[in-house]
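Re: beginner question about structure tokens

> Can someone show what the tokenized structure looks like for a real chain? I only ever see the sequence side.

Sure, here's an example I had lying around. Input first:
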Amino acid sequence: MASVPKRPKVPRRRGGRDTGHPDPGSGLRGHPRFTPASHPQAAAGGSARGQRSADPLSGFLAWCGRAGVQLSPKVRLSRAGAVAGYGMLAAAELQAGEVLCSVPRAALLSQHTSAIRGLLRDAQESLQSQSGWVPLLLALLHEYTASSSPWQPYFSLWQDFRSLDHPMFWPEEERTRLLQGTGIPEAVDKDLANIHLEYSSIILPFMKAHPKIFDPKLHTLELYKELVAFVMAYSFQEPLEEEDEDEKGPNPPMMVPVADILNHVANHNANLEYSPQCLRMVTTQPISKGQEIFNTYGQMANWQLLHMYGFAEPYPGNSNDTADIQMVTVRKAALQRASSEAQQQLVAEQWDFLCQLEMVGEEGAFVLGWDEVLTEEELSTTLKVLCMSEEEFKEYKEQDGWEDNSEEEENSTLSNEALSRLKTPCKKLLYDSVLLTLESYGSDLKAEQDLLNNKEAYEKLSRREQQALHVRYGQKRILHQLLELVH
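And the corresponding structure tokens:
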């Protein structure tokens, strides 16, 4: 991506935009609101491999007591009453600022608390990767398959990580058919390539160096992939202090028992707070008895939610939904309207100059929200440059892309109102780019709207078809809204 959209900072779980194998630095989880049965986030059930339990939840709660996890008497963990899987419900009325649970740092499952933490620390140089997840994943590979692991009652909440139903587990044909144009198939392809690369180049050599602890026949690539999905959906990333943000990379992910049971909505009513001794889930508003308590995973579009968590939010619930216009699509639209070879050559030169300014890239995308363009500087500069005459472009290049125009600078935020006030050539280029983007989907907006409005037809769809429909439909609605603004 040319840039990550600017967003308020919130403590959050991990997430990704354009992730390779979900790259922690590339974007973070979003905030949606959804209706019951839309969210299979904690598709829990039987037990982990090492230790079977007829009642996973009671075994887990007993473990919490032993591990020093404090659960408020005003809440209960339950499958009944939650939107999906397990959830946290209010057993009594709650006020804002009440502590729902407190998890001591010793109860967190991370590369620093695992039984193999010493090995991971000694090998840290050789375990570096693009994702930054390898040490945690090795810790999980060990703890999940070790019958003596103290975290077995925690793992027993998940019968099978595949039940999270991330698109990485869908057959490629189904992924392409249902998600074409959404950006998810491309993100999954990168994930799978990077998972294979990490496993073969880092995990296998480490396991071979420690044959008493790891067995490639047990700790397979398939299990590794399932644990990647588990980390995608359930891990937390402690935010850096503001003064550290520029110097340090993101903190490594970690598993936070109890806190990860809370489901997610945009209009959430609880937040995770970090302190040196423990992590605490705290209410942010009053909650009525019987109501489900929701955390937020950050501000995320539906495509990110489906990619990272295996669920999407039904339209129109996700106020943080976005649609992308690939940067190369805008170049394609500019080339299509160039009526001569000289004009095509000018577009090519303008694009190269935009690449030098780091405004565009071959794999980047312009990100559109409901109310504004989130990559406003990149899109406004790109439209302006690609619509310049040869003389205007020559003058612009001589100034290295800088202009002394404070009024234009002031109006650089591309709100919906600002989009409607773009100069006519810029509007036309953006309009053509949106039309090309809509062509990339394999489905029609009207047909999808009819499906959503027909309850009987909608309920006949498979769960995957429903989730994909919500992703596609939200993106197309944003794109159609943009068409109307610049028409």
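Each token stands for a local structural state, so reading them left to right follows the chain. The first strand starts at residue 12 and ends at 13.
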